[in-house]
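Q: What would this chain look like folded?
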Amino acid sequence: MARTRIIVADDHAVLRSGLKLLINSQPDMQIVGEAGSHDEALRKARELKPDVMTLDLTMPGGTGVHVIESLSRECPQTRVVVLTMHDDAAYFRVAMAAGAFGYVVKQSADTELLDAIRCVARGKIYTQVLLAAASDRPAIAPAPPNGPTSLIDTLSEREREVLTMVAQGHTNQAIADRLDLSVKTVESYRARLMTKLGLHNRAELTQLAMEAGLLAGSGGQD
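A: My prediction, written as C-alpha cells:
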C-alpha cells in the first residue's frame, strides 16, 4: 500500500518533532519534509510535491492564506490540513475559502489530525464539527469539483472597497464621503457583506480582510 507523503509546516521545532513521531508511526503515512516558515513551506512543497501538508496559519515568512492559495494554483496535488491554535470560525472560513482541505485546532486529540490527513488524502474535505456548525458547512464533504472559490472573489469591486474601509475603522459617514455614496447606501453594503460572508460584526470583517490581505499597505481610520 502506498503511504501518504506529508510535509509538516510549523515554526515550533518541538511540535514538529512530536508530529513526525506520531505520523511516522502510522503504517499508511510518512513524513517527507518539514518547514519552519511559510516561505519554506512553499519551497518544500514545490520541491517534494507531497500528498498532504499540515500547515500552521501563524508563522514567519508570509501568511498561511497565501501559502494555501499558492499551493492550490501551483501544487494542486498537495492538499492542506490547517493545524492551528485558532478555533475562531472566521479563521476557519478564510482558510477553507482559500483552498484548505482540512482544519484542525491544536488542542484536538492526535486521532483527529490523523483522521483529517486520511480524509483529505482521499480527496475529501475534513473540518471539526463545532467549527463546521458555526460556519454552516458539513464536517466532511466532497471537494469542490472546480477548485476552491475565495469568499472575497464573490464580492463586487464596490463591496471590496466598503469591506476594506470598514476593516480600516472608517465610520459609515467617512466611507460615504470617500466613495460619494449616501450613508444609507453604505449601511446596505455593510449588511450585504455580513450576509454574503456569514459574519456578524466589525471584528470578524476586520479579521477576514486581514487574512485576505486587503489591509496590506492601507491607511488608518479617520
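The chain is about 50% helix and 15% strand.
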